Amino acid sequence: MPNRNTAEVMGHLGRDPETRVVGDGGRTVTKFSIATSNDYKDRRSGEWVKKDATWWNCEAWGELGEEIETSVMKGDALLVKGKVGLNTWQSKDGEDRTSLVLTVAEAYRPIYRRRDKGSYSAPAADADVGGFEDFPGPDDFPDSDAPF
Fold first, then answer.
1. Which residue, of 45, 49, 120, 132, has the greatest Cβ tally within 10 A?
2. Which structural domain range is residue 67 located in?
3. How far, CA to CA in Å, does 70 sit from each of 64, 74, 100, 129?
4. Contact 74, 16 (CB under 8 A)
5. Based on the structure, what is the number of domains in the chain?
6. pLDDT tens digits, the chain, 148 residues: what are they?
7. DSSP state, 67?
């Protein structure tokens, strides 16, 4: 059976992304953290049960990282896809440390409407978010304007 190392994480940024140059080649890496919620709704009581968030250390290289740094900030929702790896280093006390890091290959901004209280929520399935009647249909464009 083939192996595949891919992860998809959607949450909110815990801090503003920070970009720095590494090595002599001018390559950049952008680091940020994402918190994912582990809350769930109890089936019996119907109440939400709060759980501690899971924090993901993320890094994005090159242009993707630079775009992330200029596009999002602490608290923004972000969906990232990439590979999970181990980051090892030695602490100031000389102890070996290891942490997981998600090396981002793709990043997406989910679209949410902001509530009055400052939190985010997706529009309800039956919400009136505007109809398609204002958008032109395929008959509104001559064949010569087709981009293919």
1. 120
2. 7-112
3. 10, 12, 24, 28
4. yes
5. 1
6. 788 899 999 999 999 999 999 988 889 999 999 999 888 889 999 999 999 999 999 999 999 999 999 999 999 999 999 999 998 989 999 999 999 999 999 999 987 665 555 554 555 555 444 444 444 455 555 554 444 4
7. H
**Within a domain: 44:** yes
Decide if 148 is inside a domain: no
Residue 7 structure tokens:
């992860």
Amino acid at 84: V
d(CA 60, CA 65): 4
- Do residues 69 and 17 touch, judged by C-beta distance below 8 A? yes
Q: What tokens appear for 8 in the block?
A: 């998809």
d(C-alpha 15, C-alpha 74), whole Å: 4
Torsion of CA 75, 77, 79, 85, to 10 degrees: 10
Residue 65 lies in a domain: yes
The answer to whether 104 touches 58, Cβ cutoff 8 Å, is yes
Per the document, the length of the chain is 148
Instruction: Look up the CATH number of the domain holding residue 88.
Output: 2.40.50.140
